[in-house]
Specification:
Layout lengths: L2 E2 L1 H13 L7 E6 L6 E6 L7 E5 L2 E5 L1 H6 L3 E7 L5 E7 L2
Parallel strand pairs: 1-6, 2-5
Antiparallel strand pairs: 2-3, 4-5, 6-7
Length: 93
């Protein structure tokens, strides 16, 4: 199952707070069919069939294809000096 670094947890919680989303909200990750690309969006709640990963209040919703791709990965995040956010995926240690 996907894990999250402390940085990712902090960033996801901050994004949700800034957007004034409901408590059920989270970052939704979807995988394009037949592609190795992922799309990240802010969602008010998971969709039917999503796998939900919750770490200290930071919630990530994974569609089935993304859950398969990320089952042994860890989500990280960093905030640039200009406030932009970059997410990264790495192997779990």
């Amino acid at each position: 199952m996907l894990t999250m670094t402390d940085n990712a947890v902090f960033v996801i919680r901050e994004i949700a707070a800034q957007q004034q989303t409901p408590e059920s909200a989270g970052l939704r990750i979807t995988a394009a069919d037949g592609a190795d690309s992922l799309t990240l969006t802010l969602a008010d709640q998971p969709q039917a069939g999503d796998q939900v990963v919750d770490s200290s209040g930071a919630r990530v919703f994974l569609d089935a294809a993304a859950a398969d791709m990320l089952q042994d990965k860890s989500l990280d995040a960093e905030v640039a000096d200009d406030g932009g956010v970059r997410f990264g995926i790495a192997a779990q240690v």
